[in-house]
Predict the 3D structure of the following.
Amino acid sequence: MSSIPAKESHVTSYPKFIGRSLWLATEGSFAFYAWMTMLTMLFLVGANAWANQVAGGMIGTNMTDQVSWGLYIANFTFMVGLAAGGVMMVIPAYLYHDRKMHDVVIIGELLAIAAIVMCLLFVVADLGRPDRFWHMLPGIGKFNWPISMLTWDVIVLNGYLVLNLHICGYLLYMRFLGRKPNPTWYIPFVMLSIVWAISIHTVTAFLYCGLGGRPFWNTALLTPRFLASAFVSGPAFIIVAMVLIKRLTGIGGLDHPIATLTRIIRVTILINLLMVASELFTEFYTGGSHVSAAKYLFFGLHGKTALVPWTWTAIGLNITAALLFLWPGLLGFRWRPLLVAACCMAFVGAWIEKGMGLIVPGFIPSTLHEVVEYVPSQLEWKVTVGIWAFGLMVFTIAIKTALPTLKRPAEH
Amino acid sequence: MTSTETDSTPSSKPSLPIVENFSRRAAVKAGFATLGAGAFVAAISPLRQAAKNTSAAEFMQTHYTELSTEQKADVIARLEAETKEKYGADVTIGDDRPIPGTKFVYAINLSVCNGNGKCVEACHKENNHDRDTNQSYIRVIEMPKGTMDMEQGSTTYTGVVPKDDKFYLPVQCQQCDEPPCVDVCPVKATWKEEDGIVVVDYNWCIGCRYCEAACPYHARRFNWKKPEVPAAEVNPDQSYLSNRIRPVGVVEKCTYCLHRTRRGKLPACLEACPTGARVFGNILDKDSNIRWILENKRVYILKEELGTKPAFFYYFD
């Protein structure tokens, strides 16, 4: 189990690297084991709920023919944003040659991996016939490409997953071998991943804004709005993760990246709010039947108001977070708890706005203008919590795999 | 990460350290991994129940358009046997193909329709819909006179019809010439046939419900549960792409009753209509009634601005 001979083939040494990394990633303190046990239990609850959903039909969810997508697709949409938001570490590091971001950029890439895994699980959870999943595989199934936006989404999401697995795997593997990474093996992929990150959220927005029969989604602003809120929620998550990593492992060199990401959110959170305001202006100043869904979301329609408290909570959180981010003191070390609070607010705000606040009102009123409300069932919450727990497990393990690298920043 | 603190290997060596007392830790970890795997298997055990409802033959079945004649015959025999087993009903499932030179269109006379809902009921029975949820492919909207804004209408009206200040707008699949539902399907489980009918291969649909989101006419339904139909009420005259009892977890839709219309009969909703508001026929036939109506009446289509080009028309006397 000692060193890998210099001449050993990658075919044998790469699996050894994976095995060793996983072995080390499952080493830890009591708190670590408690955390992983809790996540495992939540994941098992979710897995059980999903198995029951498959056995009994999706009647166990509260979705209907009127509101045919709910909590799962809402979370899917949000997670795509989180995956895309990780790129906000890559851009400063590689486009602006910020050396200090180089050392920690892998945190964003590992987040992207965990988020995409969650996206795929949410899609599977939403399928009425998961046993027919293979129908979607190009080659053996029937792939409706390039016409269906969903096939584009399958391609870009899996492509982004492979891209990030390659970049992270290559960099960590080189550290494992004690070699300097060869830029030709990862720089082109890093550059590609920047474009690709934009594409995953663009295509996911196209899923919705391409539907002429759903006026609430049928807006060209949907894609930029998606990207703006992704560039808030992704960095917000990474900041909190880095504050935690610093606290738990004492790894240095994280303060500069935290400050960089805070500056990025300062801008993106305002752009996001500006776009929400533009959208609301066009909707409400114009009026007519086009505004029905927005009216339902913000004020209720025909006495139905299920989403109103949610959406105003989101607006409150987003505005408060924006104000906090504008305050210069937030960059100081003494105000870390406040920074974390601001990030959490921005994160939850984006989750409501991009999830339930976007998917559900697209269906209310229905295309025949029935107002049928939707509140997720307990089963849906269980499955959702299970997938989140699994995603956090993947992220925790991934970060632990990268810790040796983070502890001794490389020269690449 | 207790062990990394002792890590002092030079950078030319692998950076990951060697874990001490490997075998004990390995045993503990293996124990927990086994426990976790066991718990996971227990957690997803309800899947075994679901697996019982799907035969290997169904799982492996290819797309309808790729089935050979013999394969199709096998599939249909299997579906008939399954219906007998699960619903206790003897049914015959046909494979009705489009008649060359036919393009079916539908028209409704809004001056005559009085909202009695007989079409909704007939559709429910003819197409073997789930009895619990009282499903149907048709929704009738009661609208105030003087508007075409559906938001002012109601699909859940009750009481004596027709009401003086209302008119009635039945909506079902418009069998669009530019169907958004077909475009969005990721697996080509739904397509438009030569006679203009948009169909679904219920044994290929993965249940993503993207088509349901894309349809501007709320014409698609999802089987949230296994449809329940008492054996005595099962309509035995069925077709593969039409009214056979659908599996759970897939999307279904109006097919202009292709198991009837491709055999020269009229749709069930039309036969049930007591007011004569419904007209159905082949638009390519110059002498047909429907052709005369479309040429001579004031015809209107729903949501024309969306560019879906419906093969479903509304007219006024």
Q: What stands out?
A: Chain A touches chain B through 81 residues (CB under 8 Å). DSSP finds 15 helices and no strands in chain A.
